[in-house]
Design brief:
This is Alkaline phosphatase. Keywords: Signal. Residues 39-223 form the Calcineurin-like phosphoesterase domain. The protein is α/β, with parallel strands linked by helices. The chain has two domains: 1-27; 32-301, Metallo-dependent phosphatases (Purple Acid Phosphatase, chain A, domain 2, 4-Layer Sandwich). 22% of the residues lie in helices and 23% in strands. It contains six helices and 14 strands. It has helices at residues 2-24, 57-65, 85-92, 118-124, 163-174, 201-209; strands at 33-35, 42-47, 71-75, 103-106, 136-140, 143-147, 179-183, 214-217, 223-226, 241-245, 262-266, 271-277, 281-288, 297-301. Strand 3, helix 3 (85-92) and strand 4 form a beta-alpha-beta unit.
Length: 303
């Protein structure tokens, strides 16, 4: 009887150990969060370049969040100038931080002005994913959403053979959704000089190849919408809809010479982009600060 108990105990230990090892080495796309996946239609509220204690913009855009339901995509440079613990406490928490519980953030370049973006990862906690990576994905309604770290040197690279590149390819391949949206801080195309680093282009190419429908970015302190773009950034009827939403509250900047693919631009009004994500398509609307006059809206179908 004693030998049987020892054998059973040993067998149980092996099962537990095997389960632990299996969980430890499971690909990260097995651990995606699910948000409102029982709903056919959901809302995503997006903007980047947000909180600066010296600006009034963050409070103006936070006021919009007071009355806009939905998951919030904070597209990097969430607090200025360095993403420190103190800045999150004094500049972000009392504006956009009021909606931290429904925020899914992307890391920007200013966060890394604090070593390892420690303030960002500490403030957002598990929602910001692994501090050594800063990229993750989740399911929202019937959509799959990918959040990338466009600070390529901090993320271990953005090339196809980098850890992030390999993860992205796997994540998109395992994505069962008909519609996919991605966001990252740096845009692949921009009307503002120096705001579209070439390092992110491999990620853009993978997003195109993986059938992603919409990509959102920030970094450029303005709003800009482009024609649908292919993997090379040229117009394609079946391309990705790219929108830059760097209007979250930091000081706005004028837009330079625009490429032929740029359709709409705004550098006068702070605001957020409201997206309604349905089972086979989407609607977008730029919602300006109270008193603002700029608007942009439209709809698209998943490609």
């Amino acid at each position: 009887m004693g030998k049987k108990l020892i054998v059973l105990a040993a067998g149980f230990t092996l099962v537990v150990l095997a389960a632990f090892i299996s969980a430890l080495f499971q690909p990260s796309w097995h651990n995606v969060a699910n948000i409102d996946t029982d709903k056919i239609s959901v809302f995503l509220i997006a903007a980047g370049d947000i909180a600066d204690c010296s600006a009034v913009g963050p409070e103006k855009t936070a006021a919009l969040l007071d009355r806009l339901d939905g998951t919030i995509a904070a597209i990097g440079d969430t607090v200025y100038p360095s993403g420190s613990h103190e800045e999150y406490s004094s500049c972000y928490s009392n504006t956009w931080g009021r909606y931290k519980a429904r925020t899914m953030p992307a890391v920007g370049n200013h966060e890394y002005n604090t070593r390892g973006a420690a303030g960002y990862f500490s403030y957002f906690g598990p929602a910001a994913a692994d501090p050594l990576k800063g990229y993750y994905s989740y399911n929202l309604g019937r959509w799959h959403v990918v959040v990338l770290n466009s600070n390529c040197d901090k993320a271990g690279g953005c090339s196809d053979d980098s850890a992030q590149g390999k993860w992205l390819k796997e994540d998109l391949a395992m994505n069962p959704s008909a519609c996919t949206l991605a966001y990252m801080h740096h845009p692949p195309v921009s009307s503002e000089a120096g705001k579209a680093p070439a390092e992110v282009l491999p990620l853009w190419g993978q997003l195109y190849a993986g059938g992603v429908d919409v990509v959102l970015a920030g970094h450029q302190h303005s709003y800009e919408r482009f024609k649908p773009l292919d993997a090379q950034g040229n117009y394609s009827e079946n391309g990705i809809q790219l929108m830059i939403v760097g209007t979250g509250g930091a000081a706005l900047r004028s837009i330079g010479k625009s490429p032929a693919t740029s359709v709409v631009r705004n550098s006068t009004d702070w605001g957020v982009l409201k997206l309604q994500l349905d089972a086979a398509g989407y609607n977008w609307e730029f919602v300006p600060e109270d008193g603002g006059t700029f608007t942009d809206s439209g709809k698209g179908i998943c490609r």
